[in-house]
User: Fold this.
Amino acid sequence: MKQNVFIDGQHLKEIQVVAVPADGNARSIAQEAAKLIGVDAESLLVFKEDAEEPLNLDSKLEGADDPGMTHHVHQAEKVSVKIYYLNGVKQRFFSPATRIQVVLDWAVGPEGFNVDVSVAPEMELALTDKPEEEIPRSAHLGRYAGGKEHEVEFDLVRGIIPNGAV
Amino acid sequence: MSTLSPTEVAVQNHMQKASFLRGVACGRWKVLGFTFPELFVQVAAVDEHGNGKTYAFRFIVDGYPDLAPDVRCWDMATNALLPADARPQTPARTREAFKEWGHGMYRPWDRNGATHNNWAAIHPQLAWHAERDLTFILEDLHDLLNAFTKKAAA
Assistant:
């Protein structure tokens, strides 16, 4: 018996599904993900979504009761994030399994740029070196951090599109 | 036996992609019906007071994916445009996206938005092209409808 598991991870442009044994473990995910990513399975860490620490590769898979459960696969345990806003910059490390929504919440919050609460819901993140790339808030941070780079830079921008219509 | 057009096949294939299915599995959106060229999808929302609700959208998908869908905020009960005063009003970027301007959604990925104000060039991260898929639009709609909610994109 196999079960399908959603994964996000380095070098993945979007969510993927891998089929692993129903009684499999985190290593099963790493082995299947490695085929998609093109790296050695032994070099991959496996995280649950938003988890700070990777799973023990021998740990049994959980989340059978959560059909949307998404794991993350990455070679890095931490990713350095720099965020630029106005004339300032903030930096901290996140797990690569962190959703962009969580990074954005930090960036607009008191530990970040403490953006006024009336403006905070308007804010978005854009990749500093690829502003044309859409950044879904459900995406995992590690998707944007290459295996050996382990760092991502974002601009914090106001997402509103100016009125230009009737 | 019916034969699906290449456009219908493309839509069906995109609805089978992992990124789309994950959104369904997480309860972020669900398909209400698909009779080519009309696709109806419901997207989950949380307002500024923390109240959960849903909004329906009609996608016209003829020419998909070369041609961007024409996306309208829809009232399934009357099978017509959702009245402007029933659409989300906050925050400002969401209100702008949902405003009535005589066309579809006020976004660069919409069929009518692509050529509006040179948006495709000014906002390439939100512009439609043939490599995009339905999930790209649904992700943006979900983000717009959950702007107040931390961890909204779970």
Notes: Residues 26-37 of chain A form the longest helix (12 residues).
